[in-house]
Amino acid sequence: MAKKLATTIYITESQNQLLKELNRRSKVPVAEFIREGIDLVLEKHKDLLPGQLTLEEALPTTTTSSAKRQRP
């Protein structure tokens, strides 16, 4: 399990009430729902983050037939 860091966030009263109700019904800590929400945002915007290229991204593409060499 990764080390957890403390931070401060500001949420609306409505968000707070709904998270508390979700916690009451599910017994899952509010902090877990917040971390899950952060993971969803990071996944949604992963194209904006640095990372390893996929094989398809790393290979150059050729769009013209002149790029293909024919044997004599």
Write a structural description.
By secondary structure, the protein is mainly α. It has a domain at 12-46. The protein has helices at 13-26, 30-44, 55-58. The N and C termini lie far apart (60 Å). The model has no long low-confidence stretch (mean pLDDT 86).
The tally of beta strands, per DSSP, is: 0
Query: Mean of residue pLDDT?
Result: 86
Order of helices and strands: HHH
Number of helices: 3
User: What is the radius of gyration?
Assistant: 23 Å
Estimate what percentage of residues fall within beta strands: under 5%
Largest beta-sheet details: none
Structural class: mainly alpha
Pick out the low-confidence regions: none
Approximate shape: elongated
Give the N-terminus to C-terminus distance in angstroms: 60 Å
Proportion of residues in helical segments: 40-55%
